[in-house]
Design a protein that fits this description.
The protein is mainly beta and 410 residues long. The chain contains five helices and 27 strands. Helices cover 9% and strands 43% of the residues.
């Protein structure tokens, strides 16, 4: 287990350091209007505060884009707003009053995010939420974009609802140190998420395809990832404890790395099993805060990526086809769940000798830098020798920023 964890830490460094985090996307226009009487009457919902939606003066736009968190604040003018979001991102709209006090988060059909992967007019899509009302802390649009501008099925919505806890807890996580100032204003936005890994065997080769039975479900593991903005730099120490309701005694920080943008990303592990959902206390070089962690059940959110290698007459790989399945074996189009992935080859000495570029969904808009479009087939620039191939690792980012590593071996 320890050797697997160390190998996984190496893979994390390789993936995080090679990914182009500045590959911008196209702008999706989202607009809406707040009436002067915008609280839902008779709904029975209780708000966490006495502020009304009509008091909203700002929209805090949060984008999860290819595993990275970005945000901006847009003013509300005369009750109306227009924001621009990144195509391919999961976007949340948080409504604040003039003093940045939290009012509520946009929620359509109980989902606290807008998945902007598959849109009716692609990168030219405009989403008009129309009139907004407040029910508890859910900001409800009178126009439902799901099934209209956003192409998504009821089943996909329900799957995302099961794992969108980070967005549901934005009210807490955007002010982690509880000083009533948005963390992003001090470049100290924190993002807490999960990295999963699972082992499998027998990748596909030409006419022989990989099977779901080759996946070792007992090997599924995870750890918490904590990322921080440039206001932190690269910390010397990160101490995580919790959950506050029933604290663990086996939490350790096993790496802290710079993210190439003056911030950091780190791995938090425990020896006794998975992290449960709950509130965790965090100390970053003396900076104390708390965050709500929503651990995703891998059985709810994981897609399995099944690779098949196709070779030429010399036995070298000329293309790799990728199939996507749910844990129950159902084939699925990954467009509303997966944003990008990478393919890595390792030899018998555990040397990684091939890394593909990040391969993105065709509809994400992430086509700059070294990204490659299309997640079903990858064609390398030159044929790849596999005479010493021992393992294939496929890391991918889901729409909510979590990362999964699927390790295939002979």
């Amino acid at each position: 287990m320890r050797n697997s964890l160390l190998m996984f830490a190496v893979l994390i460094m390789i993936v995080s350091c090679t990914k182009d985090k500045n590959s911008g996307g196209s702008g999706i226009v989202i607009k809406g209007k707040i009436s002067q009487s915008s609280s839902m009457k008779g709904s029975g919902a209780k708000s966490l505060n006495t502020v009304q939606l009509s008091d909203a003066k700002k929209v805090f736009v949060v984008d999860l884009d290819n595993g990275n968190l970005s945000s901006e604040i847009i003013d509300i003018t005369d009750g109306s707003f227009t924001v621009t979001a990144t195509m391919g991102a999961a976007t949340a709209l948080v409504f604040l009053d003039a003093d940045n006090k939290y009012i509520g988060t946009l929620a359509s059909r109980g989902l606290f995010l807008l998945p902007l992967n598959k849109l009716i007019e692609g990168e030219n899509t405009t989403i008009n939420l129309a009139d907004l009302t407040l029910s508890g802390t859910s900001v409800i649009p009178s126009h439902d974009p799901f099934g209209n501008e956003i192409i998504i099925t009821d089943d996909e919505i329900n799957r995302l609802k099961a794992v969108d806890g980070f967005f549901e807890t934005l009210a807490k996580n955007i002010d982690a140190n509880n000083d009533n100032i948005l963390d992003v204003l001090n470049d100290r936005q924190l993002f807490i998420k999960t990295r999963f890994w699972v082992h499998a065997s027998h990748w596909g080769l030409n006419s022989t395809t990989p099977l779901m039975s080759d996946i070792d479900y007992s090997s599924i593991g995870s750890h918490m990832e904590l990322d921080g903005g440039k206001g932190f730099g690269k910390p010397n120490s990160i101490i995580v404890s919790g959950p506050v309701e029933n604290p663990y005694n086996d939490i350790t920080t096993f790496f802290i790395n710079g993210d190439g943008m003056d911030g950091f990303y780190s791995g938090i592990n425990r020896t006794g099993g998975f992290f449960e959902k709950g509130t965790y206390s965090i100390n970053i070089d003396g900076y104390k805060c708390t965050m709500v962690y929503s651990n995703n059940d891998a059985s709810l959110s994981q897609l399995f990526v099944l690779p098949t290698l196709h070779t030429n007459s010399e036995g070298k790989v000329t293309s790799i086809s990728l199939e996507y399945k749910l844990p129950d074996g159902t084939s699925i189009d990954p467009i509303n769940f997966l944003t990008d992935l990478m393919i890595q080859f390792t030899d018998e000495a555990q040397n990684q000798y091939f890394n593909s570029p990040w391969i993105c969904n065709a509809n994400t808009g992430q086509h700059k830098g070294e990204h490659v479009e299309g997640v079903f087939t990858y064609i390398p620039a030159t044929p790849i020798d596999i005479s010493h191939l021992s393992g294939i690792t496929i890391p991918y980012n889901d729409l909510l920023g979590n990362t999964y590593f699927i390790n295939w071996s002979k």
